[in-house]
Amino acid sequence: MKAHDGMYIDGEWRPAAGTDAIAVVNPADEQVIAHVPAGTADDVDAAVRAARGALPAWAATPPAERAARITALRDVLVARKDEIAETVTAELGSPLKLSQAVHVGAPIAVAGSYAELAASYAFEEKVGNSTVHLEPVGVVGAITPWNYPLHQIVAKVAPALAAGCTVVLKPAEDTPLTAQLFAEAVHEAGVPAGVFNLVTGLGPVAGQALAGHDGVDLVSFTGSTAVGRQIGATAGAAVKRVALELGGKSANVILPSADLAKAVNVGVANVMSNSGQTCSAWTRMLVHDSQYDEAVALAAEAAAKYGERIGPVVNAKQQQRVRSYIEKGVAEGARLVAGGPEAPRDQGYFVSPTVFADVTPEMTIAQEEIFGPVLSILRYEDESDALRIANGTVYGLAGAVWAGEATEAVAFARRLDTGQVDINGGRFNPLAPFGGYKQSGVGRELGSHGLSEYLQTKSLQF
Ligand code: NAD
What we know:
- This protein is an alpha/beta fold.
- The protein has helices at 41-60, 63-79, 81-92, 96-120, 149-163, 176-188, 203-211, 225-237, 260-272, 292-305, 316-331, 364-367, 383-390, 406-413, 447-452; strands at residues 6-9, 12-15, 21-26, 31-37, 124-127, 130-136, 139-143, 166-170, 196-198, 218-222, 241-245, 251-254, 284-288, 335-338, 354-359, 374-380, 399-402, 422-423, 441-442, 455-461.
- The longest helix has 25 residues, at 96-120.
- It is globular.
- 55% of the residues are buried.
């Protein structure tokens, strides 16, 4: 695959400061498809300087002009959508149809939404005798994961550019090729030099250098809770803004009045999509005692159908991690009704779509984020029991509630400690704020709430 051997800094591809490289592997066949440079603190420093240099002019650029550049960026993503989808498939392993529909479709929608918001947002408001100006926070250090390689980038870069911030991006080491394509798109869209910069590299080297850099005003991170905690501590010590989008262990609560077959089938599809590598996936299905056996049978049947359609997980380490969780589920007494720890193919980092029944709330597989195609089905006695189980993890990112009437589902959803709830299969909304309660994170992405993360206020009194 095509790869740049440098960093995109100040509007051009520059040689990396060091000589180390990262091998990019196709998880479907374990072949090395490209190499990208492993950035050092020197590369990060050069990128942050470029971003600082570009900040005053970009912050002063009228919102309509910033909107025009984001529209142009969206248009380049549309024009190059096939190439991007193929690249995502090559480095993440997702089936091509999923790459086209979700991995490219969602970020195009999000970029479009920020083009509109940049043009229409009220960057000034009157409060009594004050005028409040909403000004860009400054230089953003964006650190992104591999699970939705382009979406995670666009969900940070588009609102940052709309707000008038400049950006240094450190993408995940598993999916740097999509990030390089994004940098090309930014360039083609005519975004001024230095407004967006890309440094590929390892998390503990380039990522850590970016999170701790004095010239960064806001660190926006998506990834594991362990690294998020560390980044939050670094940002706190430097009194700089931080946004953290961390893990989840979302509940799919099926109330007795719901259409059981629909709720179970959509629930299984939600978990198996992207091979379970979705932080908001509904990995715990909660079913009433009276419907439990029927739900388990439906889920096992639905999961079996995914056997051939599912892609691999991203790398050997994740495959091993997920398989260890499945073994732990068995060891703790949960009942396997689909899949299991054995790799379904000799080549590629595949994991069988797996469903556990008889999972109890305190089991490891009901508490920890697995990040693989593994569903746990739990039993509840009544609504208060369901609520206690649903809220009984350290996470609170997303969830779902199903009931005969939406009002019944809404009443339950209002009691969930979580940032998003899909009612009776409600669709993804690129304008709805996305982010976590509890240890699922700090801050929100997407829509106007996502934009406000990149703004700070200045009040003038008259
Ligand atoms: P990670 O947190 O290690 O990596 C995410 C990003 O942070 C990558 O760009 C990485 O290079 C960078 N990073 C790593 N260490 C860093 C450090 N010390 N300082 C600064 N940046 C650093 O996540 P991972 O290893 O790719 O995945 C592990 C687990 O994280 C998964 O199993 C899953 O539970 C979780 N995860 C969550 C999401 C999400 O969307 N919430 C996404 C991916 C992974």
